[in-house]
From TrEMBL:
<keyword id="KW-0342">GTP-binding</keyword>
<feature type="binding site">
    <location>
        <begin position="58"/>
        <end position="61"/>
    </location>
    <ligand>
        <name>GTP</name>
    </ligand>
</feature>
<feature type="binding site">
    <location>
        <begin position="130"/>
        <end position="135"/>
    </location>
    <ligand>
        <name>GTP</name>
    </ligand>
</feature>
<dbReference type="InterPro" id="IPR030378">
    <property type="entry name" value="G_CP_dom"/>
</dbReference>
<dbReference type="InterPro" id="IPR016478">
    <property type="entry name" value="GTPase_MTG1"/>
</dbReference>
<dbReference type="InterPro" id="IPR006073">
    <property type="entry name" value="GTP-bd"/>
</dbReference>
<dbReference type="GO" id="GO:0006412">
    <property type="term" value="P:translation"/>
</dbReference>
<dbReference type="Pfam" id="PF01926">
    <property type="entry name" value="MMR_HSR1"/>
</dbReference>
<feature type="binding site">
    <location>
        <position position="174"/>
    </location>
    <ligand>
        <name>GTP</name>
    </ligand>
</feature>
<protein>
    <recommendedName>
        <fullName>Ribosome biogenesis GTPase A</fullName>
    </recommendedName>
</protein>
<dbReference type="InterPro" id="IPR019991">
    <property type="entry name" value="GTP-bd_ribosome_bgen"/>
</dbReference>
<keyword id="KW-0963">Cytoplasm</keyword>
<feature type="domain" description="CP-type G">
    <location>
        <begin position="11"/>
        <end position="178"/>
    </location>
</feature>
<dbReference type="GO" id="GO:0005737">
    <property type="term" value="C:cytoplasm"/>
</dbReference>
<keyword id="KW-0547">Nucleotide-binding</keyword>
<dbReference type="InterPro" id="IPR023179">
    <property type="entry name" value="GTP-bd_ortho_bundle_sf"/>
</dbReference>
<comment type="similarity">
    <text>Belongs to the TRAFAC class YlqF/YawG GTPase family. MTG1 subfamily.</text>
</comment>
């Protein structure tokens, strides 16, 4: 599959982040816990530079516990605060507020020595599309302050949002990068919905997901769809799922578009199981 998506608003968002970085005390980097490496924009490290940062692994309820533990240990070994979160259920939200206050203690102490009264902590939240930024912001603010949706690209421009306590948050639209040199990264982003389905070959994408899940743990597919996948190729597995779920056209042929959407939707909603698609040890070169 050839996946190459870099809309014009992505460059505008990158410029927005760079131009507003001086206005904030820290950066909250939001990752998808199912794909912490693939959902990490490689430009962010360079853009953020030495600014204090907190990594929030959102959707940790959809990733498995083994993956959550290994990725949390990875970031802790780099002395980067990491929080496992589920913005939908408010899990981990309180810890984000606590870490934000810890991250600026020294900076505020210096301000006090200069006679500057402590004001609100200003933070910027960054992350790829569809990683749950708006939902997390709403949880942090305790209200519906930002637009949300299950499609990438809902947030259109920057907006300051007052959170509980003394924190002001600068929200930015999701940002990807110009091209995907690693096909596995591109596929992981597509599997989780970071890339709009409308520009994808949805049937090939579903087949790739079946192949990956079957290689990782075939029991996941067998348990969810009540089928036997032993020695089956991805297309044969898809056919079995389609028949089991009634994705059949009037002429008794397989409705591949319908079953493809079904499989991707059930994976993204966690119905197939709690799945981590990549681990730190699987990544050959990692920051």
């Amino acid at each position: 599959m050839n996946i190459n998506w870099y809309p014009g608003h992505m460059k505008k968002t990158k410029d927005l982040i760079i131009n507003n970085l001086k206005l904030v005390d820290l950066v909250i980097e939001l990752l998808d816990a199912r794909i912490p490496y693939s959902s990490k924009n490689p430009n962010i490290d360079t853009i953020v530079s030495n600014k204090p940062r907190i990594v929030v692994m959102n959707k940790s309820d959809l990733s498995n516990e083994k993956g959550n533990y290994k990725w949390a240990e990875h970031y802790k070994s780099k002395d980067i605060p990491v929080i496992l979160a589920n913005a939908t259920s408010n899990t981990g939200v309180g810890s984000i507020m606590e870490e934000a206050n810890k991250a600026v203690i020294e900076k505020f102490r210096v301000r006090e020595q200069k006679g500057i009264k402590n004001t609100s902590i200003r933070a910027m939240i960054v992350g790829i599309p569809n990683v749950g930024k708006s939902t997390l912001i709403n949880s942090l603010a305790g209200r519906k302050g930002a637009q949300t949706g299950n499609r990438p690209g809902i947030t259109k421009g920057k907006q300051w949002i007052k959170l509980k306590g003394n924190i002001e948050l600068l929200d930015t639209p999701g940002i990807l990068w110009p091209k995907f040199e690693d096909k596995d990264v591109a596929l992981n982003l597509a599997f989780t919905g970071a890339i709009k389905d409308e520009i994808m070959d949805i049937e090939t994408l579903a087949l790739k997901l079946i192949e990956k899940l079957n290689n990782m743990d075939p029991v996941l597919l067998e348990r969810r769809y009540e089928i036997n996948v032993e020695s089956n190729k991805p297309l044969e597995i898809m056919d079995k799922i389609a028949i089991k779920r009634g994705c059949i056209l009037k002429n008794q042929e397989i409705d591949y578009t319908r079953v493809s959407h079904l499989i991707l939707d059930e994976f993204r909603r966690g119905f197939i199981g709690r799945i981590t698609l990549e681990y730190p040890e699987d990544i050959k070169i990692i920051d």
